Amino acid sequence: MAENRIKIDPYEHIDKFFTRASLLATMSKDGKPNVMSILWRSIGELWMYPVITVAVSPSRYSYELLTKGIREFTLNVPSDKISSAIDICGTYSGRNTDKFKQANLTIIPGKRVKVPTIKDCVLSYECKIIHETDSGNIEPHHLFFGEILAAYTLKEEI
Ligand SMILES: Cc1cc2nc3c(=O)[nH]c(=O)nc-3n(C[C@H](O)[C@H](O)[C@H](O)COP(=O)(O)O)c2cc1C
């Protein structure tokens, strides 16, 4: 079965958003998706939208895709089954590595976005970038604010 998950509201099971230190973000350009590990993220409500924010360094290949590719991303909370992907996706670069293959991750095509989510994630969010800004003098990162268009959880988490 390709999909072992169900659709949920953006803030359902929100406690699980914080159970893992690091999550997996995906983004895409020219039909080529990429995945990176993300430690710095938040979820909440902004401008009346359910919003996820990710902090991405401009040095990342992922930054190039987020700024020059499809203006969407997904954020995924890995289950134990795929938790080893965090190291791979946070070490290798999509510039020269297919990290989905390298980390043995299965892609699920996005339903509301053109960017794929990842199978076997406790939570997955499909987001459309609605705002972005530099993070100022805290760290040289760029903040991408994504409106949550769809959210999913694993069936066994219900
Ligand atoms: C556990 C972990 C968490 C990370 N969190 C972030 C983060 O929040 N923001 C960021 O820009 N880089 C973060 N990184 C670094 C990127 O994931 C890493 O540089 C990655 O190789 C970038 O891939 P890319 O070149 O394909 O974009 C993290 C790395 C690890 C191992």
Question: Topology, pairings included?
Answer:
Layout: E1 5-8, E2 23-29, E3 32-38, E4 41-46, E5 49-56, H1 61-68, E6 72-78, H2 85-89, H3 99-102, E7 107-108, E8 117-118, E9 121-134, E10 142-154
Antiparallel strand pairs: 1-10, 2-3, 2-6, 4-5, 5-10, 6-9, 7-8, 9-10
The structure holds flavin mononucleotide.
Residues 22, 34, 36-40, 55-57, 60-62, 86, 90-95, 141 line the site of flavin mononucleotide (FMN).
Structural description of this entry:
The chain is built from 3 helices and 10 strands. The protein is mainly beta and 158 residues long. It has one domain (5-157): Electron Transport, Fmn-binding Protein, Chain A (Pnp Oxidase, Chain A), CATH 2.30.110. The strands form 2 sheets. Strands 1, 2, 3, 4, 5, 6, 9 and 10 form an 8-stranded antiparallel beta sheet that branches. A two-stranded antiparallel sheet has the order 7-8. The longest helix is centred in the middle third of the chain and has 8 residues, at 61-68. 35% of the residues are buried.
* Average residue pLDDT: 95
Broad structural category: mainly beta
* Overall geometric form: globular
Catalogue the unreliable spans.
none
How many helical elements? 3
Order of H and E elements:
EEEEEHEHHEEEE
**What is the domain tally?**
1
Beta-strand segment tally: 10
Please name the CATH topology.
Answer: Pnp Oxidase, Chain A
CATH superfamily: Electron Transport, Fmn-binding Protein, Chain A
Radius of gyration: 14 Å
Determine and state the CATH class. Answer: Mainly Beta
Q: Bound compounds, please?
A: flavin mononucleotide
Residue fraction in strands: 35-45%
Q: Which range best describes the helical content: under 10%, 10-25%, 25-40%, 40-55%, 55-70% or over 70%?
A: 10-25%
Which architecture per CATH? Roll
Distance between the termini: 18 Å
Largest sheet: 8 strands, antiparallel
